[in-house]
Amino acid sequence: MTEETKAPAPAAERPSRPFGERSGGGDRPRFGGGGGGGRSGPGGPPREGGRKFFRRKKVCKFCTEKIADINYKDYRLLGQFVAESGKIVPRRLTGVCSPHQHRLASAIKQARNIALLPFAGRAS
Amino acid sequence: MNRIYELMFIVRPDMADDDLDKLVANLETTVTSAAGTVKSVDRMGKRRLAYAVRKFREGIYVLMTIEGAGTVIHELERRLRVTEQVIKFLTVRVDEELKRLDKIKKLRDAKKKVSAMPAAPAAVEEAPAAPPAAETPATA
Hints:
Chain A is mainly alpha-helical. Helix content of chain A is 36%, strand content 0%.
């Protein structure tokens, strides 16, 4: 389980720009830190008041860069949204919008089928 | 009902160039004899595979764009399956996607024109407006 939650983090962090700096546990304070008091959120060290850490808003890479065509042949682009383990990185970590994530997922699956992307593990 | 398909296949890495030529020519005749047309053939070259396929770690990628009915693809895939040198293939129907991209492109172009339009008339209007403004101080 810990392996599963940690795995996407390095992959999501590598393509730095569009993603939040701390994508690994970025959404956790939303659920856990209701009181906002004692717990130090993983999004950053709590300052006075607790809840005041800054988190960059994640935006959809495909919307901002106006990439209309998400194609299975473009494995370099797709590779940014595949974790080290070969998994598709969830939307809540990458900030991709729902329609684009849908296309992205199908493109990644097609790319896997033609051996451009791995089903599991690093492309060797 | 003609549709546009993209056929990508991988042949074993130790295949000679002229053998590949022959294979591609063969496939092309298959397509044309089934009342389809080959729009383009793109050899993408040798590439390392993401995982081993039939114990090969690399393969030569070829991409063909084909227009025709589904029966063309059916026959083509049957042939690819039989062909020993082809280790993997994938056919994707792309006409819907192309249509969608066309629509987006048109929309963007239209938007560009709209944003360019107000700038142009404004410049035209300014030009005649400027001389009277310049004249008034001269006459006064």
